[in-house]
Automatic annotation (TrEMBL):
Region (Disordered): 719-741
Pfam families tied to this protein: R3H, zf-NF-X1
Domain RING-type: 1-48
MF GO annotations: DNA-binding transcription factor activity, RNA polymerase II-specific; RNA polymerase II transcription regulatory region sequence-specific DNA binding; transferase activity; zinc ion binding
UniProt-listed PROSITE patterns: R3H, ZF_RING_2
Species of origin: Mustela putorius furo (European domestic ferret)
Descriptive protein name: Transcriptional repressor NF-X1
Amino acid sequence: CELVRVTAPVWSCQSCYHVFHLNCIKKWARSPASQADGQSGWRCPACQNVSAHVPNTYTCFCGKVKNPEWSRNEIPHSCGEVCRKKQPGQDCPHSCNLLCHPGPCPPCPAFMTKTCECGRTRHTVRCGQAASVHCSNPCENLLNCGQHHCAELCHGGQCQPCRIILNQVCYCGSTSRDVLCGTDVGKSDGFGDFGCLKICGKDLKCGNHTCSQVCHPQPCQPCPRLPQLVRCCPCGQTPLSQLLELGSSGRKTCMDPVPSCGKVCGKPLPCGSLDFIHTCEKLCHEGDCGPCSRTSVISCRCSFRTKELPCTSLKSEDATFMCDKRCNKKRLCGRHKCNEICCVDKEHKCPLICGRKLRCGLHRCEEPCHRGNCQSCWQASFDELTCHCGASVIYPPVPCGTRPPECTQTCARVHECDHPVYHSCHSEEKCPPCTFLTQKWCMGKHELRSNIPCHLADISCGLPCSATLPCGMHKCQRLCHKGECLVDEACKQPCITPRADCGHPCMAPCHPSSPCPMTACKAKIELHCECGRRKEMMICSEASSTYQRIAAISMASKITDMQLGDSVEISKLITKKEIHQARLECDEECLALERKKRLAEAFHITEDSDPFNVRSSGSKFSDSLKEDARKDLKFVSDIEKEMEALVEAVNKGKNSKKSHCFPPMNRDHRRIIHDLAQVYGLESVSYDSEPKRNVVVTAVRGKSICPPTTLTGVLEREMQSRPPPPIPHHRHQTDKNPASSNLQKIAKEPVIDYFDVQ
């Protein structure tokens, strides 16, 4: 697609006369895309005409001059001489008399005298006229029969065969037929015109026998039993001359019997097989050979099975039998199997009717079962096909299955709403849904929703239903829905009635008409030790049973005191308040903190001071961070070094912010980095997706700071061997709760507390 300059070498197609650049057409002709399918050559890009040779030279349009020079007074790419090209495919002796030009040559302007088709008249016509000349006279040419003449008007081509009906008789005279004149011309023998394929049956010249040949032209052959024609015995093994020497009587007429040689006949019989041919076992005789005494193996029609039968029971028409094998090959339709018994077909044509629905969707294919798609429905309607409003019409005949015409008018059907109609006339029974934006209440009547299409009926606001259930205790927890909250089922939400013993909800399935069942409480409660350091979540029923067990032990010790005559108060051991105040036992760390607290009181150390650097070191690292760091101390050490270097760089450098990107790592390591970043005052963000997710930390001047003790230092100090636990301290005061004091006794022997400063 480019301009063709007047000086550019070009090539012109001799079929469509399209002009291309010579270099472009060379590239195209050598490319694989230009090759013609099933032909040797290349295709013209415009008309697809196949050419055998690739153009190599630049010639003018008439082809006489190579590399023509351009002149202003001549047509570009022409030589300026007379074209002289012949009209291809036309009976014109003249050549084109125009100057070298593009495109096809005009018709020849000369006139000439031309004979009509029958050759009786002459007419003056334009040279090269393709149409033949016809006169108004009869043709009268001799027809194929050689007897009659053509009665049609002057016409081209061969005359039609003679249409006259003649009656012909066969050579033997037993059969006649009606045929067109000219049939079997030249086969007549003066008596008959054709052979009827019957036995001739005419009397031979001997007068004793009849002709046994198939109907033939006259004359018949001589009698085959004449003495001068018979040279051998009936079996053909011995010449009659030898038999005459042995004393046999000579034959005078055709009626005399032929002497027998006395040998076995040996003529081949029609039974037997190709491998073993049966022969006549009788002695040399005249006439037909008798029946065979052997057996023959015959095959069924499809040659799948064989059967052995006596030759006497075989006839020429019963040489085969049908087996019970069914044909499993596919028929030509490709859909059904043949299933014929002892099938001998090669094509296996399907006799069934196709019956598939046609494209119209109304009729079925009535052709024999076939491959591929069915043809279009041949039925048509002669009524006008209109759209629903009648504005667009398709006039008959209308092929079956044609859809109603498209209409640009607005739909005129009756609609359910009174909103403006924006869709066009359509052939479907149901109109498209109305999309006009309206306000509608949600299904639960919670709020009035705006910008809702008119066709939407059931709208959910997404809020909980919160309608009171039939039980009267609970509310519906489903999102805004349609219809009843509970359909054919009872409320299964947990009961919220407080228990009498612990005050927690019942949590049994809703039972509005029955009392709460006596089940163990599954609520989780948080237990603390006496000093408040230890915390542990425990199920309420287990905590109560633990307290009851401890209380039973305490009660047993009280009973021992009662036996010694002391009075014991047991009311506090069985109250609900005491059950609720079940506590954990303090461990060694609790005792260590208690000792530190007493030391602080002895040395008058306040809570604000931190002489042992306890709060500034260990308190900043959470227990979960310590637990994760213990799994990979080397990784934590490397991360802390990177963070310390980042904080020092931002504090000493010119920039107020500086970031560091850690390599991709798993989720546990990323969590450690995020937790450490909070301790160092760094901003941490995770980027990318798994498995290449990584963490970027950013240090900010004035906000980021290194802790006085690293996490690895804290963990190493905790993992060192600990000193023995301190000796528990018991104050000499009257215990207000004797039951609890008995629970916390560790050693019965009195011990000395060397750190007691009171």
